[in-house]
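Why should sequence recovery work at all? Because a backbone constrains its sequence more than one might expect. Tight turns favour small or flexible residues, buried strands favour hydrophobic ones, and helices have their own preferences. The token representation captures these environments compactly. In the example below, the structure is given first.
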């Protein structure tokens, strides 16, 4: 079996010498100081030409240093135990803190300028930055005074932020005792939850049970935390005069409430499609009903096929090339230029990510490749982000390549569907096809449906607090199981301990960043709808998809969609995504 590649990060810097890199950071700090000297106190009075020059200078600054910043961060993520990587990571962190402190005034002053002269965004020479400026303008009505903003930041540091820290620390310091093959093992949280994917059904069930039993024992901690974070958010919403608890996140994601309402309505109306899949999966697994420990479990007890690195590369390049020859070339380049780090290694960050390289108009990918079908999917997913980066950096400047969560997953999820196409066409047996279809449907079910339950759950907490109700542990648990059951109906057997499922999701405890979830539902269903259109329109659809990804953040998701002939404020549009999922369920049923 061909070994997984290691990446070559050297193109990111002129010199990999540690002294050279640290000097480069000193220079970055000095330049930020000179930018501060040049512009501080002046931005709020700028005319159109001056604003343009300032934005260009900001972008030049980003492009000059992002390679070196990336180099240090990526080096550390791939090998956190390496002495030099540690030193450079410390260097980059310090430098970035200093630079962000030095340049913090720019956003405040830009806000002031746009508040006083909103008409400046219509200045013809600023056209390229119009939407970037519009996004800033959208935030202005909710900004407090500089003094108030500073008080909130410094109070939160040791106040409401501590709940999130506590939740994370609690999880990482727990130990769980579990019998594996007749031997009692002591596992940490990360190890025990990896058993959720184990082929042994009893072991999966027991792993779920002991984790949620332990979380439930400390329910008083979680309910106090979640109650405080949600109540704090409502207080901030009132201070800022947000229309609803979701307003802040709608602005951050560059979407409007009507769109998200249509999306959530379609999910609610389509739960039967997901339930039908879960019933079918139970039948394939030979079970009367799935337990909650089976929902995303592998279906077969036979030995799974292993993929070599070269095989994975060949399949993925072909999958993308079938869609567009240029995409095929770029994907191939990602492998041939060693931009992917797949080698399993101690000290390597878990999970996977794709990091955009703006000045190189490319990207770097980190994953741990063990040859499982899930690893091939992850690789295709991250390479979809890379395609997005190739298109975006070729067509947009850095300020127009700050992509919000709703659009950020478009290239990646689309890439997974291209891979699904390829794998299905190659599959020889019924079992191989079942594995591909359940892989794609398991993920769709989680990202579109299970995640929607989390949106309803969060909404219901704000509603209850507003009514003056007290959120104790059992009340929060009832809100969660109610939202969950709206999705799953009675097709799943739940362990009673699963009422504490909400306690372990870190994002529920992050203050000032609420409604973390719906962009995932948006992206999943959006891409399924796009893929459906591709199946309907064939080659005619290709330039539309490329246009969408090439636009970066220069336009809102609604405008981007409109330009390729889609109206995302309508339920009809979102229904296309459900139809595509239904098509996959039909294929699975007809095997
Ligand atoms: Zn992704």
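From this structural description, the recovered sequence reads:
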């Amino acid at each position: 079996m061909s070994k997984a590649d290691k990446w070559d990060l050297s193109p990111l810097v002129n010199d990999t010498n540690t002294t050279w890199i640290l000097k480069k950071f000193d220079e970055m700090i000095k330049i930020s100081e000179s930018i501060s000297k040049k512009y501080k106190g002046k931005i709020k009075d700028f005319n159109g030409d001056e604003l343009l020059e300032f934005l260009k200078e900001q972008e030049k600054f980003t492009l000059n240093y992002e390679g070196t910043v990336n180099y240090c961060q990526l080096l550390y993520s791939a090998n956190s135990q390496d002495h030099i990587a540690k030193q450079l990571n410390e260097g980059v962190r310090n430098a970035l803190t200093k630079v962000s402190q030095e340049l913090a005034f720019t956003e405040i002053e830009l806000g002031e300028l746009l508040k006083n002269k909103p008409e400046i965004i219509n200045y013809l020479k600023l056209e390229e930055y119009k939407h970037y400026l519009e996004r800033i303008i959208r935030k202005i009505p909710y900004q407090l005074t500089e003094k108030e903003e500073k008080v909130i930041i410094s109070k939160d540091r040791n106040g409401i932020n501590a709940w999130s820290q506590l939740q994370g620390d609690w999880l990482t310091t727990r130990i769980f005792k579990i019998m594996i093959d007749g031997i009692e093992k002591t596992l940490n949280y990360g190890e025990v939850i990896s058993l959720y994917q184990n082929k042994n059904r009893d072991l999966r069930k027991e792993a779920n049970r002991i984790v949620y039993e332990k979380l439930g024992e400390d329910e008083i901690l979680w309910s106090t935390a979640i109650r405080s974070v949600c109540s704090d958010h409502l207080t901030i919403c009132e201070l800022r005069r947000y229309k609803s608890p979701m307003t802040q996140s709608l602005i951050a994601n560059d979407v409007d409430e009507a769109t998200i309402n249509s999306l959530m309505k379609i999910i609610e109306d389509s739960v039967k499609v997901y339930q039908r899949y879960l019933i079918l999966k139970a039948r394939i697994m030979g079970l009367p009903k799935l337990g909650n420990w089976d929902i995303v479990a592998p279906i077969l007890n036979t030995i799974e096929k292993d993929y070599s690195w070269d095989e994975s590369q060949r399949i993925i390049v072909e999958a993308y090339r079938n869609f567009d020859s240029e995409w095929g070339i770029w994907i191939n380049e990602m492998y041939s230029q060693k931009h992917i780090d797949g080698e399993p290694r101690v000290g390597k960050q878990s999970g996977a990510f794709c990091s955009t390289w703006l000045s190189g108009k490319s990207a770097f990918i980190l994953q741990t490749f063990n040859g499982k079908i899930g690893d091939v999917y992850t690789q295709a997913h991250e390479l979809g982000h890379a395609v997005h980066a190739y298109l975006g950096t070729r067509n947009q400047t850095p300020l127009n390549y700050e992509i919000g969560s709703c659009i950020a997953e478009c290239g990646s999820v689309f890439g997974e569907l291209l891979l699904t196409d390829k794998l299905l066409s190659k599959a020889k047996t019924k079992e191989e096809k079942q594995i591909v279809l359940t892989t794609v449907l398991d993920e769709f079910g989680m990202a579109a449906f299970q995640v929607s339950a989390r949106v309803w759950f969060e909404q219901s907490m704000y509603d209850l607090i507003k009514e003056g109700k007290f959120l104790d542990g059992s009340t929060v648990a009832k809100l969660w199981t109610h939202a969950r059951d709206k999705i799953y109906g009675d097709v799943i057997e739940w362990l009673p301990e699963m009422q504490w499922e909400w306690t372990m999701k870190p994002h529920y405890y992050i203050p000032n960043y609420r409604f973390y979830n719906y962009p995932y539902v948006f992206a999943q269903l959006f891409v399924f709808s796009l893929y459906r259109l591709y199946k309907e329109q064939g080659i005619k659809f290709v330039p539309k998809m490329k246009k969408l990804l090439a636009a970066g953040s220069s336009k809102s998701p609604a405008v981007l969609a409109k330009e390729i002939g889609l109206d995302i404020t309508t339920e009809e549009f979102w229904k296309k995504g459900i139809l595509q999922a239904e098509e996959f369920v039909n294929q699975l049923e007809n095997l």
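A few observations help interpret the result. The chain has 24 helices and seven strands.
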